[in-house]
Design a protein that fits this description.
Largest sheet: 4 strands, parallel
Strand order of the largest sheet: 2-7-1-8
Distance between the termini: 42 Å
Number of strands: 8
Oligomer: single chain
Radius of gyration: 15 Å
Length: 128
């Protein structure tokens, strides 16, 4: 992969539309794509490992990531915050690694403002 920049794929759509199912199917058939690991302020659950499921950070650390523009996007979900780390994504893309983000619509719009060159895929529900 060296010599080319990786591609950024953003899978977006409403909650429950099947983004996760699509991403899991892609990962099984396309080994060269890597999913970005999100940052969160929620505590790790039993069996979760920092850097594998999420990067677990304090509220203060998350505030610093926002202040220094080190998140491509972020959102509050109930009492916790989640975001996509800019450095991780840019480093992986620079190394030639294709990256996929599975995020909500608002997050995709935030990423699009910062990285319009991404490939944006919107998953629509079959009906209301």
């Amino acid at each position: 992969m060296a010599g080319r920049l990786g591609r950024l794929f953003i899978i977006s759509g409403p909650s429950g539309v099947g983004k996760g199912t699509i991403v899991q199917a892609l990962l099984k058939s396309m080994k060269e794509i890597k999913v970005s690991v999100s940052v969160t302020t929620r505590p790790a659950r039993e069996g979760e490992q920092n850097g594998r499921e999420y990067y677990f950070v304090s509220d203060r650390e998350f505030d610093e990531l926002i202040r220094t523009d080190r998140l491509l996007e972020w959102a509050r979900v109930y009492s916790n915050r989640y975001g996509t780390p800019r450095d991780f994504v840019l480093e992986e893309l620079a190394s030639g690694q294709d990256i996929i983000l599975e995020i909500d619509i608002q997050g995709a719009l935030q990423v699009q403002r910062k990285m319009p060159e991404g490939i944006y895929i919107f998953i629509a529900p079959p009906s209301i």
